[in-house]
Amino acid sequence: MTDIKSLTIKELTDFLVEMGEKPFRGKQIFKWLHKMHVTSFDEMTDISLNLREKLKENSTITVINAVKEQVSSDGTRKYLFELPDGNRIESVKMDYKHGHSVCISSQVGCAMGCEFCASTIGGLQRNLTAAEMLEQIYAIERMTNERVSNVVVMGSGEPLQNLENLISFLENINDKEGDNISLRGITVSTCGIIPAIGKLAQYNLPVTLAISLHAPNDEIRSRLMPIAKVYPLEDLLRACRDYFEKTGRRITFEYSLIKGVNDSPGNAEQLSALIKDMNCHVNLINVNPVEEKTFQKTGEKDIMLFKNKLEKNKINVTIRRELGQDIDGACGQLRRRYPE
């Protein structure tokens, strides 16, 4: 059975033509799936009963269900979704002055093994389909009746390990016949899989690439992130420069501050020297404590010292606003708390 929500509008049109239908049906059904967010063929009221029956026989519509919702005092909403096969993933909706932003997962679990992250506990189960990535946004829009304007692919999983489905997701979410979310409003995060960064650059999409850096040198990064033992910082930064040259999109470096590990003034100086010649932005994040880990948050004074040191070295830097701190804020925590 074909998962038609994962198909691009061209793929959907080709699928329907093979079924003996007219090409215009592709756009018609795509709108039902990606603009109206229907969950069944019977809701497609301007489609003939005969075609609806043919679609039921030859295809499926992926739908995910919220099994848990946590609402923070700041309005942040965290969802635990159950997939058709029973696996569970997390998504987060955050409200800003500029609009509503959703952070989605790209995999069930994660294989990257980063020491400070709950997502990786239990390892990787599987990749998400494009439809399952889209459904996280559509389900939230259905439940809240609010349009999402920004998307961050930074939840559980490593998006660039799921590149083919990620590209289909980006094409569908950006399509003017669907949710029509601007690619410039989408951020894709990676821990630094260099070959996949090169492949993503070849698509020349105006998405923001966020690199999970979290350390100013290979020694610290290797302690925190196993991927650093495969791809050293020098090679990773070269890939980032190549990405900027190809796409013209400024790189974001995510840097989780961990008390006594990577948050000293000396670390800030090292980081400044590492990226001083790059068109980039540093997003400082105070690490989310995870039950199974021993890492602690950096104090507010030390965060400001770190930020000021970067700014004195002419590095563009912000401190990420902490949202959802009174709920299971860190990636993977809610899924761990409520297993299948």
Order of helices and strands: EHHHEEEEEEEHEHEHEHHEHEHEH
Strand order of the largest sheet: 3-4-5-6-9-10-11-12-13-14
Mean pLDDT equals 93
Biggest beta sheet summary:
10 strands, mixed
CA gyration radius, whole angstroms? 21 Å
Would you spell out the secondary-structure blueprint of this structure?
Elements: E1 2-3, H1 9-18, H2 24-34, H3 49-58, E2 59-60, E3 65-71, E4 77-82, E5 88-96, E6 99-104, E7 107-109, E8 124-127, H4 130-144, E9 148-153, H5 163-174, E10 186-190, H6 194-203, E11 208-212, H7 218-224, H8 233-247, E12 251-257, H9 265-275, E13 280-286, H10 300-312, E14 317-319, H11 333-337
Parallel strand pairs: 1-2, 6-9, 9-10, 10-11, 11-12, 12-13, 13-14
Antiparallel strand pairs: 3-4, 4-5, 5-6, 7-8
Helix pairs in contact: 1-2, 4-5, 6-8, 9-10
Structure characterization notes:
It is a single chain. Helix 1 (9-18) packs across helix 2, helix 4 packs across helix 5 and helix 6 runs parallel beside helix 8. This protein has helices spanning 9-18, 24-34, 49-58, 130-144, 163-174, 194-203, 218-224, 233-247, 265-275, 300-312, 333-337, and strands at 2-3, 59-60, 65-71, 77-82, 88-96, 99-104, 107-109, 124-127, 148-153, 186-190, 208-212, 251-257, 280-286, 317-319. It is an alpha/beta fold and 340 residues long. Helix content is 35%, strand content 21%. The model has no long low-confidence stretch (mean pLDDT 93). It contains eleven helices and 14 strands. The strands form three sheets. A ten-stranded mixed sheet has the order 3-4-5-6-9-10-11-12-13-14. It is elongated and about 70 Å long.
Summarize this structure briefly.
The protein is an alpha/beta fold and 340 residues long.
